[in-house]
Amino acid sequence: MKIDPVSLTADLIRCPSVTPEEGGAIELLERLLEMNGFSCTRITRGQVSNLFAKWGSGKNGRVFGFNGHTDVVPVGDLSSWSVDPFGAEVKEGFLYGRGATDMKSGVAAFVAAAIDFVNNNPPDGSVIITITGDEEGDAEDGTAAILDWMKQNGEKIDHCLVGEPTSPSKMGEMMKIGRRGSMTAKVIATGVQGHSAYPDRAKNPILAMVKLLDILASHQLDIGTEHFDPSTLAITSVDTGNKASNVIPASTTATINIRFNDKHTGKKISDWLKQCAKNIEHLTKTKINIKINISGEPFFSKPGYLAKLVKKSVKKYTGISADFSTTGGTSDARYIIKKCPVVEFGLVGKKMHAVDESVQTSQIIGLENIYSDILKKFYLDVKKDRK
Prior knowledge:
- By secondary structure, the chain is α+β, with helices and mostly antiparallel strands.
- The protein contains nine helices and 19 strands.
- The chain is elongated and about 80 Å long.
């Protein structure tokens, strides 16, 4: 049964799977994979539905895995879209819809490649597909839950490819072998409310917040490391909720997002943030509280067998020698690296999360070809190793 990856992408787009809603996408893939000899297990944790699918029953053979997500970010302003976000309309060679780029096309490509491969070239080993519905959300009950289940049930993956969009502008120009860490800090400065005509009777939390933010934003975390760009700190919001022009507010809040490389850990940066806050507290006599969420530590997968394998297949079909990169945001590869070597490779990501998100249909077909070639080479190498 030959699966058309473009049609499958369209079917997935028509599933309104906005995090954490499953929207029918996991169910669709589960039926399709079971029809083609995969043993499927639905893994549900919290409000999230995930899927573990395996072809091959041997516990000792080589195992290649694909990982991806079917959940998508919200549509945003519907009136800004020129098409139905869940209509999967094709125009001038492009397939439109929320998740077209990130990353229902990638999921469709590796599912189609895996089904075609096991039906026509049954490997001496197993192929595993893991799909989560919680990558765009908190990601605590998605791939992490699948890996917990795998550990409990004695399942393994030797090498894993994540189908996230990785190329900035041209198909094949970049693959990810690591990512910076990510953390968000919510800062609340509390003073004493008062009349603006009598500032001496109040304690202005805005002054404390401004001093703190200036210190944080002016500080250079580092200049980059061997494999990573410099760490960055961005102030993403400042708010008092104060609608009166003659009132000094009692409190103000700010949100800070930090992307950090392997020179740091989340704890190290958290300690620095808290110390800076204490210094400003002492200086301004206000109270500053910081709530920190570390969504991922930096990771790096040294280019080895898997990275070189993917690079060869990418060059074969695109003519481009993909750069190894650690740029971009977080991904579920941060969980998988704890279990096995992992590489991310997928389509051009320029339109992900955007209004009128779209993907070139020819790229989806090209991506399936690359994934198919990777599977063939992987299991050909297995045969060679056993001779």
